[in-house]
């Protein structure tokens, strides 16, 4: 998968790249067209339980699409790190990716400071570009753009309020509204 600002996100099968001939099989990526929240496919990190997300008070998560009932959403299993989940949204395999920001402790001399809402920038920068170029949207849980300049010193850390919301764009505002009404992000 490759992406460039203003040029879209493109993918090619790995097996096509292994041939000696110049491949001509690049396909433009687009987020899915889901417009109804209860029909959306969600993904979350394996390390974060559905119950830890604000949407859990509105929906139960099911992993079997045949057992989705009223008040349920489909949680698509996905392995590996957050970049794989970004790519699931980019390729249309998922409509929404939710990620809660973590908390870390920072040691400075004798001062122990707790930083909440922390994420390493390198885990998200590429995914955000790919999602935007495929027609999706990425914000923090308050709807603000991700600020890569927030870490004035090292430019390695980003501080999304609550976490990351990655969507097909169509569902973004509806999800933000539900999240803000169901939970205090702080």
UniProtKB/TrEMBL annotation:
Gene Ontology biological process: sulfate assimilation
Cofactor: Mg(2+)
Leader sequence residues: none
Residues that hold Mg(2+) according to the record: 123
Gene Ontology terms, MF aspect: 3'(2'),5'-bisphosphate nucleotidase activity; metal ion binding
UniProt entry keywords in alphabetical sequence: Hydrolase, Magnesium, Metal-binding
Highest taxon, organism lineage: Eukaryota
InterPro entries linked to this entry: Inositol_monoP_superfamily (IPR051090), Inositol_monophosphatase-like (IPR000760)
The family this protein is said to belong to: Belongs to the inositol monophosphatase superfamily.
PANTHER family reported for this sequence: PAP-SPECIFIC PHOSPHATASE, MITOCHONDRIAL-RELATED (PTHR43200:SF4), PHOSPHATASE (PTHR43200)
Full protein name: Uncharacterized protein
């Amino acid at each position: 998968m490759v992406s460039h600002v203003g040029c879209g996100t493109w993918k090619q099968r790995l097996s096509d790249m292994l041939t000696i001939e110049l491949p001509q099989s690049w396909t433009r990526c687009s987020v899915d067209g889901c417009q109804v929240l209860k029909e959306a496919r969600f993904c979350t990190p394996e390390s974060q339980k559905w119950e830890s997300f604000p949407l859990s008070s509105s929906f139960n998560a099911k992993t079997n699409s045949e057992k989705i009932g009223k008040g349920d959403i489909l949680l698509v299993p996905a392995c590996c790190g957050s970049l794989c989940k970004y790519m699931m949204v980019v390729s249309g395999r998922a409509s929404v990716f939710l990620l809660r920001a973590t908390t870390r402790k920072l040691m400075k001399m004798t001062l122990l400071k707790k930083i909440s809402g922390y994420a390493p920038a390198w885990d998200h920068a590429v995914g955000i570009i790919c999602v935007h170029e495929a027609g999706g949207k990425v914000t923090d849980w308050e709807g603000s753009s991700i600020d890569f300049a927030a870490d004035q010193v090292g430019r390695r850390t980003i501080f999304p309020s609550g976490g990351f919301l990655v969507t097909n764009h169509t569902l973004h505002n509806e999800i933000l509204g539900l999240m803000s009404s169901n939970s205090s992000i702080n």
